[in-house]
Amino acid sequence: MNLHLFVSLFIENYLIKEWGSMNTRVLKIISKAILMMPLIALSIQTLAAELEEIVVTAQKRSESLQEVPISIVAFSGEDIEKLNISNTIDLVKNIPGMTGVNNVGLPQAAAYFIRGIGQDESVSTMDPAVGTFVDGVFMSRQIANNSRLYDLESVEVLKGPQGTLYGRNTTGGAVRIITKKPTEETEGWVDIAYGDYETIEASAKLNFPISDNLYAKLTAYTIDQGEGFLENVTLNRDQWKRDATGARAQFLFLPNDRSEILFTVEQAEDNTGGIVGANKLSACCSDDIYKVESGLENTWAETDFTAYSMKATVDLQNDTQMEIILSDHDLTHSFNNDYSDQVVPAYSIPNLSNHEQKSYEMNFTGSGGDVQWAAGVSHYYEKSHVLFGDALFLFGGAVAGTFMRDMTNTTDATAIYADFDFDLGDGWGLTIGGRYTDDDRSVDVEQFIDTNGVPWEARTKANFMDRSAWLSTAAIGAPFDNATVEALGTLTTIEVNEFTSRIVVDYQPNDNVMYYASMGDSFKGGGWASRVTAAADFVDLRPEFVDNIEFGVKSEWMDDALRLNLTYFNADYTDLQITAIDQDTGAFVYSNKADAEVDGFEGEMLYAANDNLTVFANFATLDGGYTELRPGAEGIANKDLKRTPDFSYRLGIIYDHSLENGELNFTGVINREDEYFNNQNNTPAGLRPSVSKIDLTMTYTPLDGDWRVIAGCTNCSDETESHSTLDFAALGFITQFQDLPRLWRVSYKYNF
Predict the structure, then answer these.
(1) What is the pLDDT averaged over residues 309-317?
(2) Domain 36-751 homologous superfamily, CATH
(3) How far is Cα 525 from Cα 126, in angstroms, rounded to an integer?
């Protein structure tokens, strides 16, 4: 039987029956499209050009994207520029089935959800569900994973659990950022940009050889926004202004023709603060989420990040390569934002934290005969010290007393893995891999009552963590510590020994088509429900687990001018770590007493119509829900999984037009996603409506190529919706955080 026919019949005769809640019309369209792939290809084979091969390293080795049995979306450095992608969070609009938000008023923090699975909570006692990796180094904290994307080789987004090759905290997927290495050339560029809200941006690169075998590259950027996105009608000022700088120094040492050592030092500061969540119950501004009436005078969010890394690669004998990655990260973060948006402030969350991260990894890759393999060992250590609280200004601040928590959280994880890819002959392949992880976490917590006479409304960066009036006696407000929570049955040490694995079968009947089926699993580390004020609520959370099956077809037609890929997945989650808000009391509630299932289709089409025109389209369907709720999770009964749109798609074109004196490039993209709830409680205020956004970019490059000009806009249609909702209706306010409005930008880049 023709395999296209087989896949089509599988969808129509099995999935449509089993997936009753899904729109069967969509499934039938997909099945017919698969059946008609060859016909589609033949019917449009006229003036088509050849697509460029995309090379990825998702499996620890360089491979063609079309030969990797994983659902991957990849962007080159050139793609990132043409699509006007500035930060990691900008990737989301180009990847159907992936959502992402600036975490509750923190521009530096990004909460990613892939296939409906992610984690909004940014406190270090809970881990992300989508792992972010920069040059192979895991970025542990969400408060620093919204990376500025500049001078990159590529970005790869891997969908679904990646527990074997990437380990813990990849239950939803992984985002891989790969920077450009220094080269032997003396060259560079300067890029100056101006945009909406009096925004000035500048970036630069200088690459140069130091000696015959030592090369250096220096890159830097700065962004300064003169006007804020928000109008504060209470204080008569604008807020939420972007202010960030960063620099990266890299040195590439080539001791011989078989080895290279890459040293990287990176530093970044982001002072983009003053974000206020708009109060949906506001008397003056409920119809405009960019107008707020916050009376909190001092609001900010600051991040200071420093990273050192060394990556050594050595070609050994017998087609074997060794890679050693060492890293040392230091991250400091503080913020005080208004989460109530009222003339008389009601609620803020002051935070001061420091995170130290060290990691060591050794990988081996090789091939021999009909086997390609990868194996390695890694060690990861993190120590996070966090001071944060819940400043609840009851009765206009008349009640002096704010719960503050002093927490030290440590993680010590060691893992060993191996992955083997066998060529079985006649187009068949088999991949088997496994990883063993020893993951140990501990927390030391002490809660205080802050009776400082300086009200929170008047506190500044200099005194907002003044501990001179902090009380810890149980007689005042019942503060707690490790002994208290342990007496209530809370574990302060969580030890996990877990084996994760994958098995993949693939079949390539010819050079242009690959079918694959895979099974794999992953887990997210345990943690603690720290955003609480009572000892009984400071509970330990078990690890989160996922089992995933996936079927896919990757194909190219018309002499590689047309790319058609389709994936079906089914993910079964156990012990989901969930954050919700009690609608009766307004308190945060944590639980992992729920299981869930998510399945869906993902499709990709890329067509080089001719040498000047490329057309692309992507779509994703998601059907997810809770499958079991154990005692303690009753509050989410009959609720939808948050950030799980039923259908989302992306349509776009890239058009290059030759002029007498240069080249004009036009890129246009439409992104749409169906409605979904952006809060766990599924309250009416948390329903994000269907949104369609348009991004447009125009680039002019002269014949000599020394410079270029880019003009464009993001969210050109000016869709103004909220991306997150904290429903504190029990306390008298509902806080919503805003999407970025329409932004235009013009940049001039000079190459030398």
Answers:
(1) 95
(2) TonB-dependent receptor, beta-barrel domain (2.40.170.20)
(3) 8
